Amino acid sequence: MKIIKPTVITDAMLVSSSVPEPDAGEEVWVASKAYAAGNVVIRTTTHRKYERKVAGTSSTAPESDPTNWFDIGPTNRWAMFDRKVGTTTTAATSVVVALRVGGVSGIGALELTGRELKATLRDAPGGAIVYTKTIVLDGTIIESVYEWFFADFEQQTDAVMIDLPQHFTNGELTIELTGTSGVEIGVLQAGQVIEVGMTKKGASVGITDFSKKERDVFGNFDILERTWSKNSSMQVLTDARDFNKIYRRLASIRAVPCIYIGTDRVGFEPMITYGFYKDFGITVDYEHSHLLNIEIEGL
Questions:
Q1: Is this model's pTM higher than 0.70 or not?
Q2: Beta pairing partners, 244
Q3: What does the pLDDT look like over 84-96, one tens digit per residue?
Q4: Alpha-carbon dihedral angle through residues 42, 43, 49, 50, given to the nearest 10 degrees
Q5: Bridge partner residues of 130 (DSSP)
């Protein structure tokens, strides 16, 4: 198991983005302008969208005026950085961002729609390439000639890279998601990789569904589809020499959304979870190794 502890992306860290802000059709808020109920504006200072509750004018910015404005979510450019599942940055065929986030050793990209995810790290802005990697997001399993020609494309929605050289603290990291049409990325995080140990066989993964399902008086179900989140339960074999270090590191991220990677093997993407651990316990059983039990709840 490995954990990516993400760095919070700030305005200063986002060097460039192919996604405009405001996006096509979006309106930036203007002080004292008359707005009708239901009008939507954006604020490039907060990178959020706001919807007018009632018609009127105001000289107070929407983020400071909850009486007249609803906060309805992030702008398209910043949706991938808002540390929330369910809000996505979208584009026609590609999303390209350049970041200066200091020394990082891991990247996690979740809720993906596209064909390829590529990361390139330069030792300085415009400098030499010191790392590059491309992940093909085709999860289709081909087991016959027929499937080669006729099997449907199966989207791989989650991808991680955990081998970046973190000593390039002045480096520039470029992330590129490409596709044939309608690319999306819900979560993009870069940060430090925490080495925990080897995930044992028997790990379990699943989802918690927040849909509403009610049976009427005739026995028929009315279903209101809502979102869902991942959950997982794992046992991890850890090095006894790292007992204190692992304990302290896990305690330090108890309230930090992180990317938990049970394994980064291709085909085991459900074992990548973005969220928190509910609890953990370390059993000190062996001379050279200990057993970590951890329950992870996705966002």
A1: yes
A2: none
A3: 888 999 999 999 9
A4: -90
A5: none
Burial class (CB in 10 A: 0-12, 13-18, 19+), 276: middle
Interior/surface letters 156-168, b for 16+ CB within 10 angstroms, e for the rest = bbbbbbbebebeb
Tokens 């027929």 belong to residue: 146
Distance CA 230, CA 209 (A): 9
Q: What is the mean pLDDT of residues 227-253?
A: 93
Q: Which residue has the tokens 């405001």?
A: 22
CA angle 280, 293, 295 (to 5 degrees): 60
DSSP per-residue codes, the chain? -EEEEEPPP-TTTEEEESS-SSPTT--B--TT--B-TT-EEEETTTTEEEEESSSB--SS-GGG-TTTEEEEEE-TTTGGGSS-TT--EEESSEEEEEE--SS--EEEEES-BSSEEEEEEESSTT--EEEEEEEE-B-----SHHHHHHPPP-B---EEE----TT-TT-EEEEEEE-SS-EEESEEEEEEEEE--EEPTT-EEEEEE--EEEE-TTS-EEEE---EEEEEEEEEEEEGGGHHHHHHHHHHTTTS-EEEES---TT-GGGEEEEEEEEEEEE--SSSEEEEEEEEEE-
Task: Find how far residue 152's CA is from the centre of its chain.
Answer: 25
pLDDT of amino acid 145: 73
Average pLDDT, the chain: 92
**188/81 Cα distance (integer angstroms):** 6
